[in-house]
Amino acid sequence: MGYRVVSGAQPHRPVRPTLLPLLLLVTLLAAVWAESGDYYDLLGVSRDATTREIRRGFKKLALTMHPDKNPVNPSAHDRFLQVNRAYEVLKDEDLRKKYDKYGEKGLDEQQGGRYESWSYYRYDFGIYDDDLEIITLDSGDFEAAVNSGEIWFINFYFPRCSHCHQLAPTWREFAKEMDGVIRIGAVNCGDNNHLCRRRGINSYPSLFVFRAGQVGLHFFHRSKDELVRFSMKLITTSIAQLWQGNVFSEIESAFSSGLGWLITFCSDTGGKTFDVVCSELILDVSWILSSILNYSGSILNGLSCNICVYSPSVICQVTGGATALFPPGSSLDKHGSVLWLNTLDSKEIYTQVINHLPDLELLTTDSFERKLAHHRWLVSFTFGDRHSASNEYKKLQALLRNDHIQVCLSVCLCVCLSPLYIHKPCVAVFKGLGIHDFEIHHGKDVLYNIVGFAKDSVRAHVTTLRPDNFPSDRKEPWLVDFFAPWCPPCRALLPELRKASIQLAGQMKFGTLDCTIHHSLCSVYNIQAYPTTVIFNGSSVHEYEGQHSADGILEFIQDLVNPTVVILDPPSFTDRVKGRANGQIWAVDFYAPWCGPCQALMPEWRRMARLLSGQVLVGSVDCQRFQAFCQGQGVRSYPEIRLYHSQQSYNGWNRDAHSLRSWALSSLPRASVDLTPETFKSQVLSGRDHWVLDFYAPWCGPCQHFAPEFEILARILKGEVRSGKVDCQTHHQTCQSAGITAYPTVRFYPYQGTRRTTAVTQADGHWLFPAVLNVLNTFLPCF
């Protein structure tokens, strides 16, 4: 598609020669942009761009290319539609993977068909994208963040919410004030609607505290001072008040436990200012504690008020307001190992203390294999200088102590490159089974992400694969995730693999292969997009197509073990579907692997097959592989869903498992009968059969949802209990005389000799067969 460049309000004014090169450049750039169909190029981002980078790239283009800003350009609408479509696809993990693998032909045509006004992108879009102190969380990293063990204060907002915009300046100031104390986050519920709904967010802005995954108080106050005061109460580290009577016993007790002290001294100058000075110091020391002590565990803290008045020791020479670090093993009356901090600024104190903490243990080439063989370790690999490791990593030892994970540093030499294939600085967890059982961290290089990864990794059963341990010829089943570290959907999938590996422990092994390092091995399996997840089960190879979630993976594997969808080829279709037995019903999905809607349907189709087990046979035909056959069956588009009993195609809008199941069941021959007032009296009340009845109204939504469930019940009971339906709109008096007050109502009429009794069960549309069968079992033990 070509685009014109419209310029100038004075068409006859000559163009200056110096402007000609500029106009030519603009024209060429417009032509190049128009010819480029790559979504990443359209947004001006790399293929490894994060969700935030994609959002920022789109916003930059939206502010300049939006049709509202280019009213005289007739092609502005079409150009912006293309950019908007690129954004809608790349911001979504599943759509992004499909685009990477199949290009535009793997996508639904509807993405990006609508866009907002220019003012929306200018004022409402991505409120906190440019704020470094506020961490914007999305569905891919939310769980890892709130389960990391750190305290998170998160603002759930909606872009069009006026109260959210009013809070934004205060939230930014609050985030700067609390930087390093607790984590300040934001979730855009416009882009992460499912996440917010799952978390029960129903108003905006909603402010919630998360500690180790647990939701804390929903905070309602909105001023910065109230937010700060509330947040400081979340800090659980205690500050010891040191005085003449306890100073030596407290300090020596800590030293004997291997802990040091950070002491701030304030002297009593008399008057009311003393309490104010001490209170301010307590607040500053609390900030330092929350930044250091909650994580490192290597120091204790005391606030010594009025100590100099009573103590005859060297401490009496300290002027009010000074702060000192007494490391473990130091002495109160010796200056040698004490670090005096000549500042009252809490952040400067924090920096000096962190720098003074002991470095991580260094693993040498000789000790590497020996130490990693028997304990769980988190290893930071660096290249060259050991000091290139982050000082923040010093906090990891305390954060992981309860999980019995030791932390160390390894300066990479031959041990990294040859057996481990580690070529750049990274963090990895070794699980205590030697140097070959490890997993590399590919998330954000921040403490909360590393801690969450380490805790999950030691419990999970996921191994980093290399050519020497790749399971190409193993007899036991393996799930292998082919990925690239720069790929955001890949990083989002990794924690889901860990969850799935825990549930399938002992049944299936899990591994990940980095295709940026092992290009040739990935090429052997024709890996074209990331992530590509493959099940190796002996000689069988199955590629996973479904949602990037542990539940989706588990369902897929369950279906491989006990398949409910029959894979049909032309001979088996002719034999089993065309030549089906009398009364047998087939539902068949004609699909193409590159088709986006087909891929979205696959997990729902498998789920539907499980729901229809015993009622309808379910199959699928790959029309890319059997193209001529599908054309011969009259298949013109994908997916094409057909029911071979009533010879009808599915034309419904919803393609979820329950909608498809209801459609299939509605086509089955009825096992229940409609009852009139006369047949109700003669066959139910006066007859000698057991009856189960569904009293319903045609206008009742739950009744409509329950109708196919009742038919399944009727089929299960056929031959033992007769099933009937009574339309209470048409036969209102009959239902009223039976005492029916709500719809649907299921009533069981068992016949016991000459006595007719009833059992009533109320349904609400979410029908459970055990509840029905329990009622029946009261009267008929065979059920």
Automatic annotation (TrEMBL):
Residues 38-103 form the J domain. Residues 1-34 form the signal peptide. One of its GO terms (cellular component) is endoplasmic reticulum lumen. GO terms for molecular function: misfolded protein binding; oxidoreductase activity, acting on a sulfur group of donors, disulfide as acceptor; protein-disulfide reductase activity. Residues 123-236, 454-562, 563-662, 664-781 form the Thioredoxin domain. GO terms for biological process: IRE1-mediated unfolded protein response. It comes from the Eukaryota. InterPro entries: DnaJ_domain, ER_disulfide_reductase, ERdj5_TRX_C, J_dom_sf, Thioredoxin-like_sf, Thioredoxin_CS, Thioredoxin_domain. Keywords: Signal. The keyword Isomerase does not apply. This is DnaJ homolog subfamily C member 10. The gene is DNAJC10.
